[in-house]
Amino acid sequence: MPGSLKVLACYLMWAFLVLYWPLFGAMDPLAVLSFRIIFSMLFCLIVMLILGQGPAILGLMKNKRQMLFLLLAGITITVNWGGYIIAVMTGRVIDASLAYYMYPIFSIVLGFFIYKERLRPLQWVAFVLAVLGVTVPIIAYGQVPVFAIIIGTSFAFYGAIKKQITASGMLSIFMETLMVVPVALIYLVAFSHLEGLTPRDILLIPTMGVVTTVPLLFFAVGMKDTSLSLAGVLMYINPTIQLLLGVFIMGEEFTTTHAWMFAFVWSGVALFLADGFRERKKESETK
């Protein structure tokens, strides 16, 4: 299978997860998040032990600098997962899809502030349009699209932190989730109410590790021979499917305010992609 198809498979799996998390409607979203953390860690551990990567785990634990960045990544991805799960389980799929349209724009601006990466004029315009899109519901309803902002910005910060991590994708996810497993366990034991779990829920809970890790494996393998530009364009399939599922399958209302909000964000995305294509064309012409 070509690398680009593996990356596409990853994005499709991520998109259809909006239909997966509501299956745990008998549980509170933070309990779902806690189980996701625990079983993602366990699934990664099992796969790595089967592949004989035990020594790599021990070696990574001796690197204090890497462990610090892995802790930060673990905290950030927990916020991202938590925001996404809460949004999907409480009928805010449209907000979740908006987040992943905005993420690449937020990510590149974050690179400007953290890594001093140069931003071109059109990229700044794209960022301004995305911010205007977020302000639309604030002006219309006095409501901040909290989940869109939390999911989008946390994923952007996660990407920025991951640039400092040298471990492989599977090993990194294992360590990131291992770092926050104690918090997940404390929540499940002390705060969650799991009396209403059905046999189906108990059978489904371990699959959280599979649905979290398998797309990441497809992405890690597929990116080895897929250009960043193609991967970036394909990524927008994910929020597009999420939006369609939210409106046509899960019955969320797409209001006039949503239309204005997405119009600004989509305009920013279009400028962002056009600028990227123009720069790559310049680079190819100078070679």
UniProtKB/TrEMBL annotation:
Asked whether the keyword Transmembrane is assigned, the reply is yes
All copies of the EamA domain together span 2-135, 146-273
Query: Which compartments does it reside in?
Result: Cell membrane
Concerning its family, UniProt says:
Belongs to the EamA transporter family.
Q: Which organism is it from?
A: Aedoeadaptatus acetigenes
Q: Which residues cross the membrane?
A: 7-25, 37-60, 67-86, 98-115, 122-140, 146-161, 173-190, 202-221, 233-251, 257-277
Keyword annotations of the record: Cell membrane, Membrane, Transmembrane, Transmembrane helix, Transport
**Superkingdom, taxonomy of origin:** Bacteria
SUPFAM superfamilies reported in the protein's UniProt record: Multidrug resistance efflux transporter EmrE
Membrane-topology descriptor? Multi-pass membrane protein
- Do you know which NCBIfam families this protein is assigned to? rarD
Q: Which Pfam families match?
A: EamA
Q: What is this protein called?
A: EamA family transporter RarD
Q: Does the keyword Membrane apply?
A: yes
